[in-house]
Amino acid sequence: VQLVESGGGLVQSGGSLRLSCAVSGRSFVNNSVDWFRAPPGKQREWVAQVSKTDTTFYTTSVKDRFTISRDNTKNMVYLQMDSLKPEDTAVYFCNFAIPQEKWGQGTQVTVSL
Q1: Residue 90: strand, helix, or coil
Q2: What is the mean pLDDT of residues 72-101?
Q3: Which of 19, 105, 5, 107 has the alpha carbon at shortest distance from 62?
Q4: DSSP collapsed to 3 states, 34-56
Q5: Residues 79/85/89/91 CA torsion (nearest 10 deg)
Q6: What mean pLDDT is predicted for residues 80-92?
């Protein structure tokens, strides 16, 4: 199973980024997929989930700013991040909800003041 995150970068506060997660090696359509992030010096934390039925869930701090979505035809999951804040700075990872797979390398998001 491979999870490959991309789309990170450096952006000013208030800006936007769209992260992508390419999934291979495991059935995608019948699984929920999550986005996580690891802020500098902190533990990895859950950010958002898209279920197999396209129901979405968000941690409170990103609700109304981030949008998670999936494309089952391409085995891709996306995270649209708007109104970014410096506290969103982190390495972002995707993974299946249950069971989780080996983590990918993640993609760095840096939000400057």
Answers
A1: strand
A2: 96
A3: 19
A4: EEEEECCCCCCEEEEEECCCCCE
A5: -10
A6: 98
Asked if 112 and 10 touch (Cβ cutoff 8 Å), the reply is yes
Please state, in angstroms and rounded to a whole number, the distance separating the CA atoms of residues 41 and 36. Answer: 15
What would the two tokens of residue 54 be?
Answer: 């396209």
Quote the radius of gyration of the chain (alpha carbons, Å): 13
**Residues 5/106, Cβ–Cβ less than 8 Å:** yes
Per the prediction, the chain carries an average pLDDT of 96
- C-alpha–C-alpha distance, residues 12 and 85, integer Å: 8
The structure tokens listed for 1 are 């199973």
Q: Which of 53, 27, 40, 52 is nearest to 92 (CA)?
A: 40
Residue found under tokens 């500098």: 40
Task: Please determine, for residue 92, whether its predicted confidence score (pLDDT) is greater than 90.
Answer: yes
Give the per-residue pLDDT at 27: 82
Return the percent helix, strand and coil in the chain, to nearest 5: 5, 50, 45
